[in-house]
Amino acid sequence: MDIMFPFESSFITIISLSAPIIFVVIGETITEKSGVINLSIEGTILITALTAFAVSVTTGNPILGFLCAGIIGGVSALVIILSDVKLGMNQIAIGFVLTIFLGKLSSFLGREYVRIPGPYFPRISIPILKDIPYIGPSLFDQNSLVLISFLLIPATWYFLEKTRLGLIVRAVGENPVSAENRGINTEKVRIITTVIGGLIIGFGGAAFSLHAKFGWSENHTGNYGWICLAIVIFGGWNPIRAAIGAYSFGVFQILALKMQSL
Length: 262
What we know:
Helix content is about 70%, strand content about 0%. By secondary structure, the protein is mainly α. Helix 3 (about 40-60) packs antiparallel against helix 4 (about 60-85) and helix 4 (about 60-85) packs antiparallel against helix 5.
C-alpha cells in the first residue's frame, strides 16, 4: 500500500499547517541569536492565540487580531529582557513563570470563546503562480499567513547573515564583552531583538487560532511551544535549518495520520 499518495495534497497540508511553527521558530531563533532565551513560548502562544481569536471575533477583523497578538507577544518578551538586563533576574526563571501564568490566564479569559465561530483569513489565489506543481497550491493558493511564514525564512536568514545589523546581533549573542569593547550597546540590541522575536512568536500564536487550529479551546496550542524550542536547538540557531526542522515535524505528523490505517 502506498501511504504517501496523493503526495501533492500531503505537501500542501504540511506547508499550511507548519505556518504557526515557522513563525514561532523564527521568532525564537532571532531572540536566541542575541543571547537571550525566551522560555515563555508555550504561555505566549497560548495567550496570543486567544488574543487573536477574541479580537477577531469582537471586531470581525482577523488582521487586527493578528496584529494585537503580535503586540502581546512583544510585551511578554519585553518583560523577560527587562527583568534580565534592568533587574538582574534570571531570564530562564522568568520565562518559566510567564509560561505558567500566561497559560492559566488564557484558560481563564478564554472561557467565553470556546468552540465558537469567527472570522478567518481568506484564501489568496495568485494567477499562473498557483499552477506551479506542488509549490503553487502550497504557497500561492493559500491565505496570507502561509505565504508570510514562508517568506519570513529567507528574509530572516538574509538579515542575520548578510546585513550589518545582523552581524551586530550575532556579535552580541556570541561575545557580548567584545561587542561592548567595539562600542556596541549590547543592552539596547538585546532589548530590541528580543521584542522583535516576541512579536513574531505572537504572530505564530495568532496563526494557530486563525489558521491551523481555527477557534479557541483550553490548551489550544497543545505544548507546541516546547516543540518549537527543541526545533530551534535542532536547527543550530540557523533560520533555514530550523525551518527544515519545522517542516520535518509536519511530515512526521502527516505520516502518523497516514499510517494509522496500517
